[in-house]
Each structure stands twice: as structure tokens, then as C-alpha cells.
Design a protein that fits this description.
By secondary structure, this protein is an alpha+beta fold. It has helices at 3-8, 11-40, 44-69, 94-101, 108-136, 148-158, 192-195, 198-213, 216-229, 234-259, 262-272, 291-299, 308-336, 344-352, 359-366, 371-384, 395-410, 422-430, and strands at 141-143, 166-170, 177-179, 185-189, 284-285, 435-439, 456-464, 468-476, 485-486. The strands form two sheets. The protein has a five-stranded mixed beta sheet with strand order 1-2-4-3-5, with helices on both faces. A four-stranded antiparallel beta sheet has the order 6-7-8-9, with helices on one face. A hairpin with an 8-residue loop joins strand 8 (468-476) and strand 9 (485-486).
Amino acid sequence: MTVIEHLVETPLARALGWTLVHSLWEGAVIALVLLAALFVIRSARARYAVACAAMLGVLAAFVVTLCILAPQGKAITPATPNAIPRAPLLDGDSSAGMHMRFRLADVPPWLAPFWMVGVLLFHLRSAFGWMAAGRLRRRGVCGAPEPWPRRLEQLRARLRLTTPVVLLETCLADVPVVIGYLRPVILVPIGLLAGMPASQAEAILMHELAHIGRRDYLANLLQTVVESFLFYHPAIWWISGVVRAEREKCCDDLVVAASGDAREYAAALAALEQTRWAANEAVLAATGGSLVKRIHRLLYPPKASALAPVFSAGILMIAAVGALAGWQAQSAARPAATQTKVDRYTRWVNEDVVYIIDDRERAAFQSLKTDPEREHFISQFWERRNPTPGSRDNTFRDEHYRRIGYADMHYEWQAVPGWKTDRGRIYITYGPPDEIEFHSDGRPAGGGLPAVNNPFEQWRYRSMKGIGTNVIVDFEDTAKTGEFRMTMDPNPGTGVKR
């Protein structure tokens, strides 16, 4: 008899196996209740609290069930000195005897050893994740440039946060992250603080400080432990996703309450999407959760529906199917999280400044061999365009990145980011127009102008640098899909026509 067979035959293994079976329906019921509650509750803090309670409820149900089914004390077996031994099976009857002895009740004890192995593997996975997060704060980091440490202290005072926080720049992350509970550290990508408008950078830092003030790092650690023990349950992964999404929304609300400008913060999140990465679960990143949903929530706050209880009842009916699909969705989503990160210098020249860098500068930048040379080039690139050379505040650069953030937030079309669209390109290159006319139903012919049968926009610039005065740019949605294409480039020298 093998070691696993000896283990399976113990009363504790039987109790643990049946606990695993019962936890499936217990967790499903708790997930159904949470789903109904989420449909009614609109407050992010309340939704977060209910989701955390649901996760703890699944764990508590597991523990209580195990305590009930576990053997109470040492079992006493009555003595049977004259017991008649079982007659051995004949060779020809062995197969039939095996089928006759098989019972469904014998299966749950075999789940116990596999559950133990799974818990061990998931705990090792979590441990490696936390070790990797710890290395992030020690490798490839440097102190943030002035005046950002002072601004961080001011933001910390505004949020009434007493915990000391260290601000560092890192070359190993593409978005700001928080690491640590007792000695928290905010890591921001090198160049992010200089490349974003000051108000947007402050909003992102306030988001990370909100995580620290709410002690989310510790909560995330406990959440990971629960996930490791209940790794087999599809409902626990769905509940955990809700917890992480609502946690980010809670921090968003704190930032908006402190700054009072939801649109500016939404623009900062839209700009951060360009550098989004698959963050380690052991760290807390500003781009956590569905960033598009978070931006939409900031700009268009949700309202409670009078039909919420009716829809909640309908959701309860179909939630069981959704819970079963959750495990497959979770497994399918993980490979996509390990996408290759684009080199930030390639992104800078092909995305950030693609519309304002000339051919000579592009050729010079692409000929550089080392990162220090590229950093020096980028610094000189912005300095040449600085309205007040030598000053720390470069209004040209700040305005340029503000335009990118605005374009991404307003002109995105399906999978195309806003900066890549025709309207985004014109907005980034020439700034906001002086007048915008939107014709949702087209325009009849008249006044020497041809008829337009599709939705179109007209942007009027009183003065367009290098082009002229009173310039009108037309954008037409010829396919009526929301994609507005430019009908004529305002700069004839580019030769771009639609």
C-alpha cells in the first residue's frame, strides 16, 4: 500500500475531502449573494467591503465545515477477537469485485492530497512574487529629482497620512507601484515625473498614497493567502478580481475628493495607459483593474437603477453558469498578462514625439548606441523647444503631453488609441481648435458647398503655425462607425489626402 493510500484512509483525509466538496456549493452561494449585492450597491467603499466579506465568508465556511467534519478526539474501535476473516477473491472475480466495491463516497478522500500539493505550489508562487517585489525596491532605483520629494510630503499631509513614504525612480517598472507595508516605497518609471504635467503626476502619486493610507498592501497580502488555500474554487478568483477592481476605485475616489478635478485625473490615467504593464500581484499599481472602466466611472458617475432588485433576481439565476466559466476565463487571461514590453526609447520616438520630431532629429536619435546618449538627446530635444530655456518648468513639453492625454481620452476609436487617429494627430500637433462644428446628420448642398451625407466635424483655427490663418479642417465618418477621417490635410506640403 502506497503512502498516498495510507493518507487517504485516515479520518482527517476523509473530512478534508468532503470539506472541499461542500465548499464548492458554499462558495457558489456566497458568490451569488455578492453578485446581487454588487448590482444594487454603487459606492466603491461599500462594494469593496462586501467583496472582502464574501472572500472571508468562503474561507470561514471552509474552516467551519472542516471543524464539523473532522474526527472529534481519538476514535475508539470496538474489539472483535472472533471476527471472521474476509475470504479472498478468485482471480476471475477480481474485476467484478472491484466494480462492486466502488462507491462515489470513496472519491472525496482522494482530493485531500492533491489539494495539499496545490496549496503548496500556490504558496511557493506567492512567495516568489513577493521576493520579486522586494527586489524591485533595491535594484535599478534612484532618488526622485527635486521638487518631487517635497511635493510628495505635501500630498501626504493633504491626505493626512502619517506613515513615512519614500519616492524612488526605477528602470524596471513602466507604471507607478507601491511596495511594502511597514516601510512603504513608491516606485515611478524614470522620466515619468518629468514627462507628465505636474497636476497629473501629483494625481498619480496621490493614488499610490491612498493605497498606503488604506493599508491595501497588507490587505493584498492576506488576499493572496486566501487565494492560495482556495485556489480550486472558480468563485474565489471572481471574488478576488472584484476586490482588486473596487480597491482601485476606492483610491480613485480619494484622489478626486482631495483634488476636486475628476477630468484631470482621468486624463492622467489615460496617459498612463500608454505605459501599462502586467503588474505583479504582490505590488499595487495605478493601472490596476480595467482602466477604461475606471476612467468612464470618473467622468460619468454611476446612478442607481429603480429596477436593480428585479435584475438582481435575474442575475442570481444565471450566476451559476458564470461562476463555472470564471475558472476558464481566469486561466485564459493569464498568458495574455505576460506581453513583451516595448522599449521606452522606441515608444518615445514612435509615439510620444512622432508628430513633432523632424527627420534630421529622428535620424540622429536612431543612430545613438547607449541609453545615456538617448537620455541626453531627449533632454536637449525638449530644451530646444522650451519657451524659457534653462528653467525647470518646460511649458511646451507639459502642454504636449497634456494634448496626448486629452486625445487618448476623447478620440479613441475601437482598438485605436486616440493619439493615432486623425483628430488626435491634428489636436496634438496644432492644439485645440478655436471653433468646432459637429453635424451628426451631414449637410445638404448649398452656398457653393457640396452635400455631405455622413456625420462630420469642422475644426477652425484662427491661426495655424506654418499653414496660415482661418484654416478649416474637415473630419468625416464615412462608414458611420465613429471613425472620423480627415478629408484634406491642412498642410499641403505633407501630401496627405483622405
